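Before the break, one more example. Copy the sequence into your notebook; we will annotate it together after we see the structure.
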Amino acid sequence: MMNVQIPQGVGPGMQFSAQTPAGVPFTVTCPAGMGPGMMVSVQPPMAPAPQPQAIYAPAPQPQVAAPKVLVETVTVQHGSDVANKQRLLPDSIDESKMILLNGCFCCNTSLLFSQCCGCAAKVTYCCCEYEACIKIDTPPLRCCCCDLRCVQPSTCVKGQQQMCCLVSSAAFPPDVEVPCTLAVMGMQCVPKCGCCQTLGEMTGGEDAFVTQQTAVTVVP
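Here is what the structure looks like once it is written out:
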């Protein structure tokens, strides 16, 4: 309840305006027997309840997993097992164990004392390769003692012939099987200086390990 003073010129049954202490206007009817300047007790209207304000919340963004990087490690061994070759195909002549005697850039003559009982030959022209082998302790070829196949070319022309412990090789241009050499009577200058060393020792093919890493990005 609150007391409101009736203003001048207002009589019984007449209405006048008043305000609550909070400043909210409302209308009062002058009761009977009351007049200007008199105080009248009235019930002010209830203040309206505050309306809840909408709060904007952004929609949650889907979380995207960070890309994963998969590192694939490939280890390639060059040595007596694979004869320091670019390709892993059956081959009856192990170049890494041949002792270089004479060499003139793209051709050489060597000694091979392992698996020297017999003879073998291999001729490669671009991607065509013919091989023949009559040796003990060597895996047979597809056609018993000979084979004809397509290979990934590493040079234009290449040939190797083995007769017992003597091996003659030539390639143009030289590749890993027939490297560029320069030697006379076992005195070697190219690919490095030495005396009666094997091609594997000269090219680092007997105990060399080459590791290649390829990074692949995988997005889930």
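The first strand starts at residue 2 and ends at 5. Residues 98 and 112 are 5 Å apart (CA to CA). Try to locate both features in your own notes.
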